[in-house]
């Protein structure tokens, strides 16, 4: 049986993608892969990419999970 992805599952996947961007940004900062983004500096592009991705990921991932749980309970 193949399940179709729901809206809530898609929201959860986008949240995970944003959290993966946070991890990749930290790895890029540690190894100085993209020096142009100014890794670790307070007013750099890398700082804002990291911050925005973390905030969006921390909102969307749990929201997708809770939405999925609530939707399943209503169907039962």
Walk me through what this model shows.
This protein has 76 residues and is mainly alpha-helical. It has one domain. The protein is 72% helix and 0% strand. The mean pLDDT is 89.
What's the short story on this structure?
With 76 residues, the chain is mainly alpha-helical.
Which labels suit this protein?
76 residues; 72% helix; 0% strand; mainly alpha; 2 helices
Q: Give start-end ranges of low-pLDDT stretches.
A: none
Question: What radius of gyration results from the CA coordinates?
Answer: 16 Å
Bin the helical content. over 70%
The total of helices stands at: 2
| Overall spatial form | elongated
Cα-to-Cα separation, first versus last residue: 19 Å
Count of the domains: 1
Topology order in helix (H) and strand (E) letters:
HH
Q: What share of residues are in beta strands?
A: under 5%
**Structural class of the secondary structure composition?**
mainly alpha
Q: Report the strand count.
A: 0
Biggest sheet, in brief?
A: none
Mean pLDDT over all positions: 89
Please specify the SSE layout and strand pairing.
Layout: H1 7-30, H2 45-75
Helix pairs in contact: 1-2
């Amino acid at each position: 049986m193949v399940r179709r992805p729901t809206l809530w599952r898609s929201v959860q996947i986008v949240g995970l993608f944003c959290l993966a961007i946070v991890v990749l940004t930290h790895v890029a900062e540690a190894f100085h892969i993209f020096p142009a983004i100014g890794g670790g500096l307070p007013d750099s592009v890398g700082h804002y990419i990291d911050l925005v991705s973390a905030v969006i990921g921390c909102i969307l991932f749990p929201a997708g999970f809770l939405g999925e749980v609530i939707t399943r309970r209503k169907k039962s």
